[in-house]
Amino acid sequence: MVLRIKYPLCLYRLLSVLLLAFAVLTSTALQAEKIHVLKFATLAPAGTTWVRLLHDWAHEVRKESRGRLIFKIYPGGVQGDEPEVLKKIRFGQLQGGAFTGYGIGQIYSPTRVLELPFLFNDIEEIDYIRKRFMPEIEQGYRDNGYELLGWMEVGFVYFFSKSPIDSLDDLKERRIWNWQGDPLGQAFFEASGLAPVPLSIIDVYTSLSTGLIDTVYAPPLGAIAMQWFTKTQYITNVPMANGIGSLVVSRRFFENLPQDLQKILKRTGAATGEILVAATRKDNVDSLKTLQNRGMIMVEATESLETQALQDIRIRAGKNLMENGYIPEATINSINQWLQEFRNNRAAEVVDAAK
């Protein structure tokens, strides 16, 4: 004979509640202890300021997250050129990266209005316009599946060449590299009447060595980091643009993080971006001096590379980019308006100070 014990209904309910609470607590504990790995790629070579500061960022995130969010950083282009890195992020093989303007253009192309040739006169103008434009940039990244963590720069870009360049006619005689597939670079060269040699950035050093190209464009720090300066002798003292950059992760990875880790990643990413901007600006100034001390010759421009001719190139390049839809006309108009406002306000301050 089997003895059946009948428990009160309230006891069954109590047991159910306890089991549910245990399951929730167990799930929360497991979630809290889960380790998230952020595989992060950059073209910057190991040992450079950029990579060192990325490692500092990774250390800070690991410390603040108590080891729950860790970076695996791939420097020096070992994961491929920027289009390849973006492809790997889409397939989940990587989760993020530090991108220059070329990669940024494939995330949210209107951002590259900040790289229009001969747009800015100094860093004060750059900072003012970037601050005004940043909310749109951040939303544009999100709408296209990415989260902007921090803003950075590669700095003012110069021509580095094997022969001196002091005019547009000289440029037309050079075998100039253009980053393969870069719409903004192509718009600049078309607006200047130049026929560049398109190559992946990974192939530039070898192509300088073989003579396939004899001229490249880069910030001073970048020319040293990529060792391009060893294959060139001259720097044309006319910055063609201010190169931008950003620290990015996929939205899918970001949204799957617990909220506390999202906050850590956003806050430390923004702080790292500010550190990178300041460090890059300083290093570019120092690098330019270093290159001259090593015997590189700074070439001063003639009239064909002075203000009005350069502004004409910028206008033509902007028109090209508007026509192909890479940068909307409204975006270019807004940037020009903000820039004019800033210059007018600064001129008024100078007049007031002189009174």
Structure characterization notes:
α2 (49-64) runs antiparallel to α11 (259-293), α5 (123-143) packs antiparallel against α13 (329-354) and α7 packs across α12 (307-323). The protein is built from 13 helices and 9 strands. The protein has a single domain, classed as D-Maltodextrin-Binding Protein, domain 2. It has helices spanning 9-33, 49-64, 82-90, 101-107, 123-143, 168-173, 183-192, 204-210, 220-225, 251-255, 259-293, 307-323, 329-354; strands spanning 36-42, 69-74, 96-100, 146-161, 177-179, 197-199, 215-218, 234-250, 297-299. α7 links the parallel β5 (177-179) and β6 (197-199). The strands form 2 sheets. Strands 1, 2, 3, 4, 7, 8 and 9 form a 7-stranded mixed sheet that branches. It has a two-stranded parallel sheet with strand order 5-6. With 355 residues, the protein is an alpha/beta fold.
Give the overall silhouette. globular
Overall average residue pLDDT: 90
Q: Uncertain regions: pLDDT < 50 for 5+ in a row?
A: 24-31
Identify the CATH architecture. 3-Layer(aba) Sandwich
**Please, how many domains?**
1
Keyword list:
D-Maltodextrin-Binding Protein, domain 2, single chain, two-stranded parallel sheet, seven-stranded mixed sheet
Question: What's the topology here?
Answer:
Blueprint: H1 9-33, E1 36-42, H2 49-64, E2 69-74, H3 82-90, E3 96-100, H4 101-107, H5 123-143, E4 146-161, H6 168-173, E5 177-179, H7 183-192, E6 197-199, H8 204-210, E7 215-218, H9 220-225, E8 234-250, H10 251-255, H11 259-293, E9 297-299, H12 307-323, H13 329-354
Helix pairs in contact: 2-11, 5-13, 7-12
